[in-house]
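Tutorial handout. Part one gives the primary structure; part two gives the three-dimensional structure as tokens.
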Amino acid sequence: MTTDIANDAIKADSNQASSSKTLRITLIALIAILSCYYLWVLYKAVTPNVSIAYKAYYIKNQTLFWQPKQPKLTLSIPSSLNVATRVPYLSRAGWAEDAYNNARLLSSNGGLYFTLPKAEQKNIHLTVNVSTPLSTPLNIHLNQWTGVLTPTTQANTLVASIPYNALMAGDALQHFTIDPPSPIAIKHIDFSYQEDAFAQQTITASHSQDSAPVVNH
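Part two.
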């Protein structure tokens, strides 16, 4: 009788130990599953499956205007950007939200965010048309590259040459900025290829006669 009671006690202890072990394994498995789930949620929050334009405007607050028709912020070269319009590439930093007199005020470091449809193999000719003449150069930056916008003999026009290797490949978001020492009113920012510089200057000259120039993408 005593032996039976002892055996029953041993079996009860064994069953209790087995149940306790099973419970621990179950809890560990649940914790691991929940941890993986929350890590997945955090990953999706950090890397949401949204367009480049959506991320730049809503998540990172980089761009000034939301334009759903430009989900990749693709900028083709050549392009003529009338910055007095709601150009989707305009940075939130630096630019005035409202345009005035066919121009938009750039009061501090600001510029453009864009992607390219293909890797560029030619140097870029940049032309910036302003409302009032400037006699001093302006520093500019494109990703890690730094250059200078130089005033020309043509009224209200500054130009620069950008090496093609300053541009990043793939769907990388390019960041172009202008550093004005004081607020300036900009009308157009034009990109063309280096060998088309003369033609681009002709296009820029026509901006002063065009009261409502278009934006080419």
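Part three, for discussion. The mean pLDDT is 81. Residues 2-46 form the longest helix (45 residues).
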